[in-house]
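Lab meeting, action items carried over

1. Structure of the two-component assembly. Owner: GW. Status: complete.
Input record:
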Amino acid sequence: DAGITQSPRHKVTETGTPVTLRCHQTENHRYMYWYRQDPGHGLRLIHYSYGVKDTDKGEVSDGYSVSRSKTEDFLLTLESATSSQTSVYFCAISARDWDEQYFGPGTRLTVT
Amino acid sequence: GESVGLHLPTLSVQEGDNSIINCAYSNSASDYFIWYKQESGKGPQFIIDIRSNMDKRQGQRVTVLLNKTVKHLSLQIAATQPGDSAVYFCAENFSGTYKYIFGTGTRLKVLA
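Predicted assembly:
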């Protein structure tokens, strides 16, 4: 998976609790992305980062926040998890913003 | 495995035959395209890409064809093997932007 790890790989949490997912890369790529993948939908972008402390919203950013304090780490936080956020979350990296993206192994999040 | 493709179109091919997977993209201004392979429980894996100044690009056992006139992309896999069984989806991008549009995918089943 191109030097990308995600943690945790699986998580079950209750509605209303905060959740943080971590993406770690060893490729020193500038761009990092968080996607969610749901049945019947293609991957949808939640947030992305174009450098340390530089982030921007994607198409489904409501209810999510991100932080990037180091090149190698990109955190996704669900401030107050809802059942609609049950999904598989993928982190991706790329060297340039219109270049091939490499994906991590994913985190399956279930909100009960 | 991940249940991200419950009702995906399925292509079944005999081992050793060639496979052709199609994708209709949405934006006539898109100029960069990627094919991904996703096995159950794993993240998407980059297969091959093509830019809009090309009509065809070949990799190892794979060929991507781009028809900009009808906004169509295809992935050809030669001598399909059991290990090729997976979900395949395309992604499109307009250069200079971070936004990729991902298709929902096609499930390829290789019959022994």
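2. GW to write a short summary for the group page. Key points so far: Confidence is low (pLDDT under 50) at residues 1-5 of chain B. The first strand of chain B starts at residue 10 and ends at 14.
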